[in-house]
Structure formats: structure tokens, C-alpha cells
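User: I'm putting together notes for a lab meeting next week and I want to include a structural view of one of the chains we've been expressing. I don't have a solved structure, so I'd like a prediction I can at least talk through. The sequence is below, exactly as it appears in our construct file.
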Amino acid sequence: MNKVILMGRLTRDPEVRYTQTNNTLVASFSLAVNRRFARQGEERQADFINIVAWSKTGEFCSKYFKKGQQVGVIGRLQTRNWDDDQGVKHYVTEVVAEEVYFADSKRDGEVGNATFENAFGTTTPGNMGSDFEVTSSTDDLPF
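Assistant: Thanks for the context. Below is the predicted structure for the 143-residue chain, given as C-alpha cells.
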């Protein structure tokens, strides 16, 4: 199985190109994805992940995604290589986006943006939604 789920901030606006063979739109951008833990006394580090989005997904990204926005991306990991004009071999690893989501909180004036959390039916930690109640009593536990 090859499945990647990322949430991070765009490091630049998506760059749009078209393939030479059939004029298919391809958008590329990179996400700064924070690492889960930071060493004591150090700032949290981020990994910069290259993303490629094709056709309609790429068109959506190019239209609505901007530098600094937090977004969610679901896709697959892909590696490719090629030789340049000088005969030097280049290797690239990137995520091919299959689904993309807005992950920033809704700002005033924004309408119709589904958040990453809502797309998966989950919420952020500590905000479990109205249908989930936490009790401190152990009397009702089944074990």
C-alpha cells in the first residue's frame, strides 16, 4: 500500500505547467510539515515535502492555495529519475496529490471551505464535538 497523508503550510504559491504531449495541467508546490517532537531546548523542525497535483486537483490547487496556507494532502509517494544534458542523473521523491483540503480555521468572509478535519469526520484534539461527552466517572465503563 502506498498512501501519504500530510498537513502543513505551503512554502510558495503553486506553480502551474502543462504537459507537452496532451496539454494536461500539473501544479507543483511544497509543504512545510512540522515534525511531531522537538528536542529539548531546540525549535521544532519541519520537513519540506514536494507535492504534484494533476488535472482538476492541480487546477483547484492553483486557484485556491496560496503561500502560508495550511492544507491537507492525501496521495501517494512517487520516485522518478532522469539524466540532464550533461549526463548527470537526478532523483526526485514527491507526493502525487489525489485529494486536497483546506486545513486553516475559517476566517471572516470565507465561505464554503471544508476543513481537513471535517473531511475525515474528525476534530482537533480537545474538541471532540457535541456528540462526544467525557465523564470522569468510571462507573459506566464496560471493563
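A couple of points you could mention at the meeting. The radius of gyration is 20 Å. Helices lie at 55-64, 116-119.

User: Perfect, that's what I needed.
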